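input
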Amino acid sequence: MTLADLKAIVRTVPDFPAPGVQFRDITTLIGHGAGFAAAVGHLAGRARSAGAQAIAGMEARGFIFGAAVAVQLGVGFVPVRKPGKLPAATIGVDYALEYGSDRLEVDPDAIAAGTSVVIVDDLIATGGTALAAAALLRKAGASVPIALFVIDLPDLGGAERLRADGIAVDALMQFEGD
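output
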């Protein structure tokens, strides 16, 4: 399937979660067998080209795409979790949200020093979570050359924030506006 075909499968839900927001819902894409397989295939090809030795995905939708990409490449998957979800000792980073803060954690034993880890997630908006994940992976000893997304919302500036941090960004599709 072409990228235009995939974009046509993504549902737009107006006024969710607030009036004026156009929510880009990937539920329709992951529920479409051929579309989901094609999206994962496109992401896997880009991760392979970037020299991925492991794939990391953020909870929760990054797990869906990231784990599938890791399987296609035959590499490990590193889950970047919300606090208190991992049974072993963890390292973490706190990061700012629009109204507060949050934290991400990872098992440092899940990443060998110097491993090239590609971040995969469903969507990049402001980039805060992806930047925090990259900082955490680097803290664990990984290099993070690129972050891959199904959807980029370029008007929110997240991709540019990642690029300013030295991380290449690629997305299968873009939606202008919120």
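quick obs: Residues 3-174 form a domain with the Rossmann fold fold (CATH 3.40.50.2020).
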